[in-house]
Specification:
Length: 224
């Protein structure tokens, strides 16, 4: 019998400026984790030079630390900056059928897998040297704190960060970027339940419409 999917017990994660539609454990929440970590690292009192202090107030901050999705002139035109992004994420096939448990009383299946999210951080500055320095700080921050980060946010794995070559920044012809990249894995768990009641509700809507099943579904697809 085909089954409906219902998430359960997602891993506890935290992130900055999350919208309600960004659920715990989603790739966007992973981006939020590292935005907050970098903001804390560059916050006053944590040993950074005054030219690289982060403040929430955009008019006072010396460095921008944002998601790459915040593509606004206010953030993109300010340097230095750290932009956190992600590459293609994928759900693995760790166990056969993803099955982790079953309850005979209600036919509920408990399933589990690992999600892998490559994280990319652009360390942007006005000169190649400054960009390389920021990249070095970011790489070392992630590497040195990797065990603590995994423990605090229930991550399954955090690979050693790679510091890339300093290159011209595509979004700003007068800037340079040194990319830092690493891979994050976290647990994804969900339940499935029989979908017969849901399919019955669809049959009822078709009957009420008075149309054939084919015409009913075609009308849904072509509806403006």
């Amino acid at each position: 019998m085909r089954r409906a999917i219902k998430p359960f017990l997602p891993p506890p994660v935290k992130g900055g400026d999350q919208l309600p539609i960004v659920v715990d454990g989603s790739p966007l929440a992973i981006i939020g984790i590292f935005i907050e970590i970098l903001r804390e690292r560059f916050a006053p009192g944590n040993g950074m030079d005054e030219h690289y202090l982060w403040y929430a107030d955009m008019t006072q901050t010396s460095i921008v630390i944002e998601s790459a999705f915040r593509d606004t002139s206010q953030t993109r035109n300010k340097k230095p900056a750290l932009f956190v992004d992600k590459d293609q994420s994928v759900y693995g096939k760790v166990i056969l059928g993803d099955r982790a448990g079953h309850t005979f009383k209600d036919g509920k299946e408990f399933e589990w897998t690992l999600s892998t999210v490559p994280v990319l951080i652009d360390c942007v500055a006005g000169t190649p040297g400054e960009s390389a320095i920021l990249g070095d700080v970011v790489q070392w921050t992630i590497h040195a704190a990797s065990d603590a980060i995994q423990g605090a946010f229930a991550l399954h794995d955090l690979s050693p960060p790679t510091l890339g070559r300093t290159i011209p920044y595509e979004a700003d012809k007068e800037a340079w970027t040194t990319p830092v990249s690493f891979r994050v894995q976290y647990n994804v768990r969900w339940t499935t339940v029989p979908v017969a009641p849901l399919l019955q509700a669809i049959r009822q809507r078709i009957n009420v419409s008075g149309a054939s099943a084919s015409n009913y579904f075609v009308s849904i697809v072509s509806r403006g």
